[in-house]
């Protein structure tokens, strides 16, 4: 009986202390300019663990990410999860691909990094172009019926293009003459888009990933409008840096970090959120907006309100 208890205890301790195993490999270490390198990062983990691999915004040094894909396969009683990155380089010399870090979401302190790898990038030589066939010499095409038909078609196409450009410029001029409508304030646009997201009820339809992409775009569009920069294509680290640089309220910065911590794994790492986590993002986003005061809206130039303000300033 005592032997059985000890055996069970040993198995339990071994399982609790098990840390995932990380390996990496490349298919070649010497390439010519523009060739692809296939980098594989494999983690052997327990089935109940969730790992976060480097995404499209990871640092690949002087290499450019062209494609990435993931796969899973059983490895005994464990799972082997592999991420494959297809990268290339347009700089000659010996380049170093930085270490890539994988994080265990169950214990963020449990993280491992691959070893850096050196790739030699050589220029394209004459030998590499031996399969290129010379072009044929010039041939006389003459001025037959096909030539005149093609010329007529080009003239008609140019005439149509001129007519379309004239119509476009005329329509643009008329639109500019109309009274310019004031832009929708960022907080009102945010509420309109959040309301539509709630009405679409994506979570009930099982479209969890689409929901997380939509709410991320809504919040990033609002932050970009407030800070006057294009936030939709920014990475999470770039977004946080921009908030701190603009001296944003630290509480707002913490809310953005909390939002991204829940949202990013679902978008990029196939993470399935717990019940209520996705719905809580709407509450979190609205709380963030409530902490930022509304922007002062300027009246369009030439409007009566703007003219009245200019008159008052002149009188003063």
UniProtKB/TrEMBL annotation:
Pfam families assigned: BatD
InterPro entries named among the record's database cross-references: BatD
Keyword vocabulary terms for this entry: Membrane, Transmembrane, Transmembrane helix
Name under which the protein is recorded: Protein BatD
Chain residue ranges for the region called Disordered: 295-316
Upper taxonomic lineage: Bacteria, Raymondiibacteriota
Positions of transmembrane segments: 147-165
């Amino acid at each position: 009986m005592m032997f059985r208890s000890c055996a069970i205890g040993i198995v339990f301790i071994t399982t609790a202390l098990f840390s995932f195993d990380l390996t990496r490999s490349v298919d070649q270490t010497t390439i010519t300019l523009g060739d692809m390198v296939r980098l594989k990062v494999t983690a052997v983990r327990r089935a109940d663990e969730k790992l976060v691999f480097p995404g499209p915004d990871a640092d690949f040094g002087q290499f450019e990410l062209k494609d990435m894909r993931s796969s899973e396969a059983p490895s005994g009683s464990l799972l082997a999860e592999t991420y494959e990155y297809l990268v290339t380089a347009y700089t000659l010399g010996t380049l170093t691909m930085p270490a890539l870090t994988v994080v265990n979401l169950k214990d963020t302190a449990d993280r491992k990094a691959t070893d850096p790898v050196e790739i030699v990038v050589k220029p394209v030589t004459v030998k590499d172009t031996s399969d290129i066939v010379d072009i044929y010499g010039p041939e006389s095409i003459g001025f037959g019926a096909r030539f005149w038909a093609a010329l007529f078609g080009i003239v008609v196409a140019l005439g149509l293009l001129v007519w379309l450009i004239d119509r476009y410029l005329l329509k643009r001029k008329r639109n500019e003459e109309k009274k310019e409508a004031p832009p929708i304030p960022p907080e009102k646009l945010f509420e309109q888009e959040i309301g539509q997201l709630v009405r679409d009820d994506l979570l009930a339809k099982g479209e969890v990933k689409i929901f997380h992409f939509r709410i991320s775009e809504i919040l990033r569009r609002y932050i970009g409008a407030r800070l006057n920069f294009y936030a939709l294509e920014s990475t999470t680290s770039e977004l946080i840096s921009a908030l701190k640089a603009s001296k944003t309220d630290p509480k707002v910065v913490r809310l953005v970090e909390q939002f991204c911590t829940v949202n990013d794994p679902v978008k990029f790492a196939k993470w399935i959120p717990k019940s209520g986590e996705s719905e809580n993002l709407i509450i979190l986003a609205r709380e963030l907006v409530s902490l930022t005061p509304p922007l002062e809206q300027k009246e369009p130039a030439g409007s009566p309100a703007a003219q009245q303000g200019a008159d008052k300033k002149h009188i003063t």
